[in-house]
Specification:
Blueprint: H1 4-8, E1 12-14, E2 17-21, E3 27-28, E4 31-32, H2 34-48, E5 55-62, E6 69-79, E7 83-92, E8 95-105, E9 129-130, E10 146-153, E11 163-170, H3 178-186, E12 203-212, E13 223-233, E14 236-245, E15 250-260
Antiparallel strand pairs: 1-2, 2-6, 3-4, 5-8, 5-12, 6-7, 7-8, 9-10, 10-11, 11-13, 12-15, 13-14, 14-15
Helix pairs in contact: 2-3
Length: about 260
Amino acid sequence: MARLSESIAELRRDGDRYTIDAPEEWAQGRTLYGGMTLALAYEAARRYFDDLPPLVSAQCVFVGPAQGKLHFLPGLLRRGRSTTMVAVEAVGDDGPVLRASFVFAHPRDSGVTIGAPPITDADDPESSRSLFPEGDGRAPGFTRNFDMRLGAGQQGGTGGDPMMAVWTRFTEPPGVDPVTALLAIADAPPPAAIVRFPVMGPLSSVTWHIDILTIPDNMDGWFLARAEADRASRGMTTQDMKLWSADGDCLAIGRQQIAIFV
């Protein structure tokens, strides 16, 4: 296990870029899992441009494995009166790793109000079974940094509707910027299509779009992540994602495409 703050602290400025040796404790096979890679890109952006408003949206393409020495290069796309757009490219020893764009915006008065989605029905975390029981050799290495429990839906490989609602918390308080931790935890549970896997096998995020609705004061405690696959075909699956705090606030809504190798 590794505390998120300790791993993020290894991201060091090197001229106009930020560099880190990919922390093995957050790996999924030979690469960092997507949430950690995007969290590092966000950290590079917010450190390089220290006057940014709150993050409201992020989009990324996972280009190649995030392994070895990684370099994150932030660049300004546009700075308006209320909105700032930043791009971050990540490269490793073997070439491109990630291309991300971040939208930061100050809140503005508006005459339009629509409520966020209510929290989905799920068992409470204390009565939910562990998603990765202790000793499960199939679990990716990074999952040891989380406690994940299935609140609704089915375990991987059991069939049924391709939906999972997973209670998730860090095993150690993350101790970082709440948005950094939010990006890391939102991508921690497995994709919903795993419910239909005939056998367990590799998978890899290809694209991810996430909109931030509410930024919490901290990311301690339980959060409920719901993913529902709407299609799987020709080695790809797409899914909708939502993340709530334990008290029912919708923090983020996302969409993801994932490569599956089964």
